[in-house]
């Protein structure tokens, strides 16, 4: 048994050769493989900063070849795209954008038809309206009211200026300033009467004699509002007007006329829901700092925030006994000036406080009032 084993070991040694060579080979081969892989990886990383790899160059080509052009033209026919169906909001926007704008020349022609032209484009007797109004204003500043009146009055009857148009309102406003300046002064004028105070005269008696108001006599002659003192021999100048009032509901205007001539124009508010009636009336009574009799029966004193009448009240009474009775109808002031020019009252004609105070001082009781559309 020992001999056989010995012979076997010797034979194995002879066939296997040097064991150290095998060990080196076993270690070297894996090292070579690892080095080769590392070298290849190193070359691949260098391509990121250098040339584009061949695979990257081929990818766009393959995508372009696969993309079918025919499908893009057929798809809209077989399946409508969502973009083709506008939402309601998009439709509204398109209508606003596509709506044709009104040409400026059309607007100008429409303004010309109704008379609303710029003042420097309206000519009367060869002069622009803006030039004439500037001259009138200069005369008013100098208190040359008679000359300004002569300049302005013919314009309201000129064919080039339509009633209630913007040029007409500009002329009426300038004439209003001229006439009130003349009225509340002692400047001599054909419509003014010279009255010499005699024994027994009072302001009330003089005002009634000439169908005017105490306030008008006071303001026109420099008499303080809180004074009634006049002396025998004093010379008073009193404007004797043939007063009439016309109210245009559609234009929100109250026109104070001296006979047939416009004296002054005021902007007014009227009743909501057609509550301001048409018709002919007279001023039946006048009250300073009025109380207000509310529909619920309350009596609201002057100065209370719930009092709607402002600083003056001019009651209106229908001119015929058989005519409809309009209880509580009148012309009054307001603590809400922003409502002037609107339909917001309960039926009365509403004015700014300063305007109604001026009107109150000019017109006496029984002045006729006509309200029209």
Shape: elongated
Number of distinct beta strands: 16
Low-confidence stretches: 1-16, 45-100, 105-114
- How big is the Rg? 50 Å
Give the DSSP E fraction (strand runs of 2 or more residues). 15-25%
What sequence of helices (H) and strands (E) makes up the elements? HHHHHHEEHHHEHHEEEEEEEEEEEEHE
Strands ordered across the widest β-sheet:
7-6-5-16-9-12-13-15
Q: Termini separation (Å)?
A: 149 Å
CATH homologous superfamily identity of one domain: L,D-transpeptidase catalytic domain-like
**Alpha-beta content class:** alpha+beta
The residue-averaged pLDDT reads: 79
CATH architecture of one domain: Beta Barrel
Largest sheet: 8 strands, mixed
CATH topology of one domain: L,D-transpeptidase catalytic domain-like
In the CATH scheme, the class of one domain would be Mainly Beta
User: Count the helices. How many?
Assistant: 12
The helicity comes to: 40-55%
Q: Oligomer, anyone? A: single chain
Report on the structure:
The chain has 373 residues and is an alpha+beta fold. Among the domains are: 123-183, no CATH class; 189-240, LysM domain (Membrane-bound Lytic Murein Transglycosylase D, Chain A); 243-372, L,D-transpeptidase catalytic domain-like (Beta Barrel), CATH 2.40.440. Helix content is 40%, strand content 18%. The chain has helices spanning 2-16, 19-46, 54-66, 70-78, 88-98, 104-114, 129-141, 145-152, 166-183, 203-209, 214-220, 353-362, and strands at 123-124, 127-128, 192-196, 235-239, 243-248, 253-258, 261-267, 270-271, 279-288, 292-293, 299-300, 312-318, 330-332, 343-345, 349-350, 368-372. Strands 7-6-5-16-9-12-13-15 form an 8-stranded mixed β-sheet. A two-stranded antiparallel ribbon has the order 1-2. Strands 3-4 form a two-stranded antiparallel sheet. Helix 7 packs parallel to helix 9 (166-183) and helix 10 (203-209) crosses helix 11 (214-220). The chain is elongated. It starts with a helix and ends with a strand. The relative contact order is 0.07.
């Amino acid at each position: 048994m020992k001999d056989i084993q010995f012979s076997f070991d010797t034979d194995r040694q002879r066939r296997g050769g040097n064991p150290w060579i095998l060990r080196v080979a076993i270690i070297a081969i894996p090292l070579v493989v690892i080095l080769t892989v590392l070298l290849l990886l190193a070359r691949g990383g260098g391509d990121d900063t250098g040339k584009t790899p061949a695979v990257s160059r081929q990818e766009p080509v393959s995508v372009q070849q696969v993309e079918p052009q025919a499908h893009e033209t057929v798809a809209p026919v077989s399946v409508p795209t969502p973009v083709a169906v506008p939402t309601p909001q998009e439709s509204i926007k398109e209508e606003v954008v596509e709506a044709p704008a009104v040409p400026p020349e059309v607007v100008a022609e429409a303004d010309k038809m109704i008379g609303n032209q710029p003042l420097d484009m309206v000519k009367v007797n060869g002069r622009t309206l803006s030039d004439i109004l500037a001259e009138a204003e200069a005369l008013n500043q100098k208190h040359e009211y008679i000359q300004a009146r002569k300049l302005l009055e013919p314009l309201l009857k000129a064919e080039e200026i339509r009633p209630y148009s913007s040029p007409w309102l500009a002329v009426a406003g300038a004439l209003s300033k001229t006439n009130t300046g003349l009225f509340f002064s002692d400047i001599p004028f054909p419509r003014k009467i010279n009255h010499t105070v005699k024994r027994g005269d009072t302001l009330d008696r003089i005002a009634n004699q000439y169908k005017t108001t105490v306030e008008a006599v006071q303001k026109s002659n420099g008499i303080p509002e809180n004074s009634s003192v006049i002396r025998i021999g004093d010379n008073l100048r009193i404007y004797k007007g043939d007063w009439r009032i016309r109210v245009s509901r559609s234009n929100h205007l109250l026109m104070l006329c001296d006979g047939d001539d416009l004296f002054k124009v005021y902007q007014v508010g009227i009743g909501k829901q057609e509550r301001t009636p048409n018709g002919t009336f007279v001023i039946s009574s006048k009250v300073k700092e009025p109380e207000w009799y509310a529909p619920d029966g309350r009596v609201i004193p002057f100065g209370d925030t719930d009092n709607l009448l402002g600083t003056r009240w001019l009651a209106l009474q229908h001119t015929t006994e058989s005519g409809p009775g309009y209880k509580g109808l009148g012309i009054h002031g307001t603590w809400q000036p922003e409502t002037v020019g609107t339909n917001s009252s309960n039926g009365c004609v509403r004015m700014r406080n300063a305007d109604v105070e001026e009107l109150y001082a000019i017109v006496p009781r029984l002045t006729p009032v006509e309200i029209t559309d």
